[in-house]
Amino acid sequence: MRRLSLAAGGVLALAGSALADPLTLTPIGTYANGIYDGGGTEIAAYDPLTMRVFLVNGTTGNVEASPKQDPGRIVFFETTGTCKHLNDVAAGALPDMIAFSPDGLRALTANEGEPNDADTNDPEGSVTIVDLGSGVRLFGPGATVTDIIPLGTKDHSLPGNGLDPSNQDGGIHIANWPQQAFYLPDAIASYTVGNVVFDSGDQFEQIVAALQPAYFNGTNTSDTGFDSRSDDKGPEPEGVALAEIDGRWYALIGVERQGDVMPFDSLTVGIEDPIEEPRTEPANLPPRTQARLDIVDVRGHLVETLLDGMYEPGEYRLAWSAADAPAGVYLTVLRTDALTLVRRLTQVT
Q1: Where are the domains of the chain?
Q2: In b/e form, how buried is each residue of 97-120, taking b as 16+ CB within 10 angstroms?
């Protein structure tokens, strides 16, 4: 067994597959502070003991250092009552994520060290470790850190690793490019599994293109902002939370720009299947339901509808001939009254 990190950032490396099981997320409540395009609720945390949700409000000017290249601070509060301020300690530049060690004895932050717009002030990225017993802090140049494991680079020339790199082409153009890109996780969570690593590749972009094409690589500053983020961070997975549901672990990925949540099932690995001839697609329908199963290409264009109507409970296996389909990536999208399931296929010849 080993520790596997789940990373949410420019690209995602994790164990699992998106929407592999009929996991339905049902909102149980909402909170709106009335702030639009202002970073009003960028980071959220839940305290199960007090059953309270805490939000970071970036619009007040009380959170980020000024300028943001200056050292930041880690601030500790009580979670009960009026959230009394307990203490605060210095950190590196732009501490963006804070986490406690499993034993509760240390707090850690990843300090982004983002440069200013003119690139005249570019602080080092760093990690701050706070010993909650002694108050020792470790960050910045000269700090000693052991056992750093780099994630390496991603080869965007490989099938399944496509991207749409331009916001000037006026459309959805996910394709392979002769580029190597660094993994830049924006949030990390971990749990213990077997020797399994799964990289979601371009699934976020593919799923948004299929299910929400009008919002593809959009931004949060207009109604759609279609394609405006393709040259930046695309859908921008920003946060990851782990949850054990019915004995199975799920990673819940928050996609910042679209405002989506994408569940990944840790027990189902390898949703990218080679297309055999003929291809047989399963559709499992527990209750009687309206259902539709489509084959779509990477731009969200309908290739063929395999199932559409009211169906009784049961397992349906539907044949699709891909003989005339060009080589590339396709998605099967099953929609019912209660859920949407997506599977990625690869046509290799």
Answers
A1: 2-265, 273-347
A2: bbeeeeeeeebbbbbbbeeeeeee
